[in-house]
Amino acid sequence: MSEVYTFTINKKMLINAWDERIAELTGEPASIAVGKKYYDMFPRLLIRDKDAVLFVIEKQKKLVLKRQSFHCILYRVMADIKIEPILTARGLKGVAVTVFNISTASGHSTEDVQRLLAMGKTASSLAHSIRNPLNAIKGAVTYISQKYAREKVLMEFSKIMQEEISRLDNFISRFLAASVADMNPSVVDINALLRKIEILISFQAHARNIHSDFQYGIIPRAVVNLFQLEQAILNIINNALEAIDSDGGLTVKTALEKSAERDFIVIEIFDDGPGMRGNRSSETSVRREKGKGYGLAITEDILNQCGGRMHIHSRKGIGTAVRLYIPTNASEGMIEQKRQG
Question: How crowded is the C-beta side of 7, counted as CA atoms within 13 Å?
Fold first, then answer.
């Protein structure tokens, strides 16, 4: 039997019960949802251009809506939704909404959906708890930058750290207020982003005697969410660094790949680590020998959201190449249209 998620709405269209499972699905806790109009917490449900909840309240008849699409914490999902009147001896009390038969819009299995919901719950908890240590780190970086203001290299790293802390804090605020998938894109210079990442990983690579080679091709700018794309790239690079033995190598390249249908910016990340068990070539998430594969799943979803994709090719004893495809058909004009719209 498929998982079900329920909440109830009174005759004034206000949520009066919001169980833990629907909270996990939407990322909205009961403390926030109860007392709000249902369509402030959940996509408005329609039947023939009329609110389906209001329809059930008026007609006092059960209604089932097939394959409704909406965002959960990490993914756009599709589900069937049943709306039933709650009848008592005194008459209609409200309606019960049941969400079931959930699948992702990109065709992932029920098991994938459940794993992603668990990830979303963990991520939400992490976002709430990370702020205190983040503020402590921010204070420490500020102190270091003031005390060692004449150290040029240290100041360069301090500036990057301050920017990243600020971006992370903003990300947490937006994450707690809305779905990750709803975050706004901006025009991004991917080569410039990778140059910053090259600096960020240089200490780690040097400490383990790993040679890193970043090769920057001629590519256009892309319209993506900067923070999400940075996390997607870092997820793959950190996986690669963990897989590489001392004296190994990491290569990161950017290039423009043209085709008759669509042009893509391609970021290729290759490590000469041990590779994965068996030769693998896949356009879906696969796991490293260590970890749960969350980083790969999140990276894949970020790329799906911007119309891109991820391809992994790994051979035992040779290494792993991950290619991130980001569409180039977006431009500053699209951003302007979104702002005006």
Answer: 29
Q: Which residue has the tokens 């009390």?
A: 93
Pairing assessment for the beta strands 91-104 and 76-88 based on DSSP bridges: antiparallel
DSSP H or E segment with residue 172: helix 152-177
Average pLDDT of the residues in 300-318: 86
Phi, psi of 117 (to 5 degrees): -65, -40
Task: Enter the DSSP assignment of 318.
Answer: T
Is there a contact between 136 and 91 (Cβ–Cβ < 8 Å)?
A: no
User: Residue 184 — very low, low, confident or very high, per pLDDT cuts 50/70/90?
Assistant: low
144/53: higher pLDDT? 53
Strand partners, 79: 68
Pull the structure tokens for residue 289. 């020998």
Its pTM stands at 0.53
Handedness of CA 21, 26, 32, 38 (dihedral sign): negative
- Work out the pLDDT band at 195, boundaries 50, 70, 90: very high
DSSP codes joined into one string, 3-37: --EEEEEETTSBEEEE-HHHHHHHS--HHHHTTSB
Percent of the chain past pLDDT 70, that is, above it, reads: 75
Q: Following DSSP, what letter does each residue of 222-279 receive, concatenated? A: EEE-HHHHHHHHHHHHHHHHHHPPTT-EEEEEEEEE--SS--EEEEEEEE-S---SS-
